[in-house]
């Protein structure tokens, strides 16, 4: 039977570091609340527009962005959260959801096209 860890394992120290490092509490990129059980990795600049960066978001926050902006509008904002919060609909949503539980979810309105 093989050993679980070889005494000559070059990665042996990496396993110990994972146990000692405290978990960092992630916060939602849009609303700033702590993350709940469900996390969505959102592309602030859509992948179809060349975006590669991802940020953690609540599903309800991501659905709200998709419902209120087109891909080209999201591309213009990029990583600028303050620009998104300048939109009255997004500001109203963030103020409303700030009082909710991190795992709160509700149906979102459809895009007005």
How much strand content do the residues show? 5-15%
Average pLDDT score: 82
Unreliable sequence segments: none
Number of separate helices? 5
Calculate the terminal CA-CA distance, rounded to whole Å.
64 Å
The helix/strand series, from N terminus to C terminus, equals HEEHHHH
**What is the radius of gyration computed over CA atoms, rounded to a whole number of angstroms?**
19 Å
Give the beta-strand count: 2
> What spatial order of strands do you see in the largest sheet?
1-2
Please bin the fraction of helical residues: 25-40%
Computed structural class: mainly alpha
Estimate the global geometry from the Cα principal axes: globular
């Amino acid at each position: 039977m093989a050993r679980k860890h070889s005494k000559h394992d070059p990665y042996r120290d990496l396993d110990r570091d994972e146990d000692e490092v405290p978990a960092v509490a992630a916060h939602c990129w849009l609303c700033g609340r702590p993350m709940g059980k469900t996390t969505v990795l959102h592309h602030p600049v859509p992948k179809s527009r060349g975006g590669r960066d991802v940020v953690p978001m609540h599903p309800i926050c991501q659905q709200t962005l998709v419902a209120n902006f087109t891909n080209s509008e999201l591309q213009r904002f990029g990583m600028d959260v303050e620009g998104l919060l300048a939109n009255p609909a997004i500001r109203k949503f963030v103020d409303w959801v700030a009082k909710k539980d991190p795992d709160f979810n509700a149906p979102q309105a459809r895009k007005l096209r």
